[in-house]
């Protein structure tokens, strides 16, 4: 159960996302290959199509992304079992967020930067010994 949605909702989101992705890939990779001036004179139509896909995806997430009314009714029926558990987990959550960070969580300081231009260069002796002359 990837999204904990019904199969119909998963299919609806998947088809909408597939259409959106196909349009995005076609308009960015495929169409410019055949028409170098794409979208050219069709820019207003391209912008309208982009907005249609954008708002279509938002509408699909709004419609297919929520739980169904049947799922909300089932959750309301099991609320008596859930009322005892939040009191037990609340203390664990508050102590988890109020604990001070350990030294391993701190960011390491950046290494010092060279002060002059030749500070990063290798010494001549190192260069001469590192690569043999043939």
Structural account:
The model is unreliable at 79-83 (pLDDT under 50). The protein has helices spanning 7-34, 43-64, 69-77, 79-98, 124-130. It has a domain at 1-66. The protein is mainly alpha-helical and 134 residues long. It is extended and about 70 Å long.
Beta content comes to under 5%
| Class by SSE composition | mainly alpha
Total beta strand runs: 0
Q: Give a quick account of the main beta sheet: strands, pairing sense, barrel closure.
A: none
Secondary-structure element order, N to C: HHHHH
Tell me the radius of gyration: 30 Å
Give the SSE map:
Elements: H1 7-34, H2 43-64, H3 69-77, H4 79-98, H5 124-130
Helix pairs in contact: 1-2
Essential attributes:
mainly alpha; extended; single chain; 134 residues
What can be said about this structure in brief?
The protein has helices spanning 7-34, 43-64, 69-77, 79-98, 124-130. Mean pLDDT is 73; it is low at 79-83.
